[in-house]
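Service request form, structural biology core

Requester: graduate student, group of Dr. S.
Request type: structure prediction, single chain
Budget code: on file
Notes: please return the result as structure tokens.

Sequence provided:
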Amino acid sequence: MNRWILLLIVSPFIGCGVAAIVLGHNDMAWNDSAVMGLYVDAATEGNLLLGPYSRFEWHHPGPIYAYILAPSYALFQEAHLSVVVTALLGSATSLVIATRLLFGFTESTAQRCGITLIVLVLTCAAIKGFFARPEWNPVVAIMPLFLLHVCAVSCVLGRFRLLPLIVFLHAFTAQSHLGIAPAATVSFFFASVAVIMRSRQQPGVKRSLIFAGVLFLITWAPVIAAEIEHGNMGQILEFFGNNKIAHPPLSELLASGTQVIGEPFSSGFRRSGLATEFGSCLTAVLIGLIGFGLFLALKRRNRVATWFLLWSVVLLIVAVTSLLNIRGELHQYLIYPFLPAVALAWTGVVLSLIPKRECPPQKRRWVLGVTYGGCVALFLVGVIMAIRTHKNIDPTLTRKNHLVENAAEQIVRELGDSPLIVTGNHQAWGSLAALMLQIKKNGYAPRTRSSWRFMFANTVTYEDVEQNGAYIYTEAPKSDEGLRLLGREGELRVYLR
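Core staff response, request fulfilled:
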């Protein structure tokens, strides 16, 4: 692989890591990042069975993500920055491996340049999430999901030794977020079937099959244990069987889906109100190119392009089905399963429409120049989107970090080693998570109300008896009787009772 292409591919992730270190906004975790910190802390103790929480009061399938983050978290003395950097490294590594596998299917400079542009577009489409919260479970699974799809197609085309990696990637992506699980499971299933069908013909395949089977049991054992102890999958099935929770309007779902297909370029049309129109046009173009590319691939007996296009069609159907099953309020991260399937479709289009033969030297230089120019343009798009994301960062965050650090020490001094932490209003949940994580880092065992059990699982203990404790508000309390103010920064207030 050309080292310049490699550098271009990983540069957005390097930029994310540098931004996290220089800006320092990841010194302390807040909101969902703090909740993830509590899960990782529990994983370092080996007693975590449940996956990340859902706003609908159940948990995503499994805890493998927290266990992957646990070693670096423990090694770097529970610094949240270690979680951020590990997540970025995982995404960058997934993208590099996927690109190397794709390059293995062609020697054509033009096709390789097309693949490079697709990979950069995929990165830029998800760049907002990577700059804002790279460790967040819907974001961290995007690049491994793309790698899983590429590995699955490669496996069907004869690279059977990739099956153990497919098993691991399936466990990681499916357990991290339920919305990604259907697409991940489809790729895992078909790749496994392909290997099993060939295992009799090629004796060496059996070793990969046995290793993959053992790895499957190891990675899914916590999920089975969680089902026995908590009945989590039963809660998920009950949720999706509940017709009381409404779907978002179909027009809104379709508009969001087409906008995501048009990313990162759709963002440039949002102010003019044309993002949906642009996304719809690009979706129509993609569908037309998939059909035309499939026709050419079958006519030319291009087996590689045929499989990539067929696989992308299946995955896009799965993504649309997942989209139509969304419940409650629609958020952009729920559309993320579209991104890897779209990238795979564009890859199939490149492999079917661009000739395999090598370009003449003059054309080769022209193709490389256009590719590098396109990569730089895409990188600048990512930088602009990142700057816009960072403008939304709370300017008082550093002072809030200091407030939580000081409050955590004072709360333990006054309330003991297992202080009760209570939210005065529901919107204070993110600050509650940040404060409890800081108290755990200091070596103590915070407690909170059992109404938050769906969010924190077994990472903390629970107490519903009225007693002295610390109260967190993100608005003025209706009555401050009996409350002593420990500190205030902006809308955040911490009291003792």
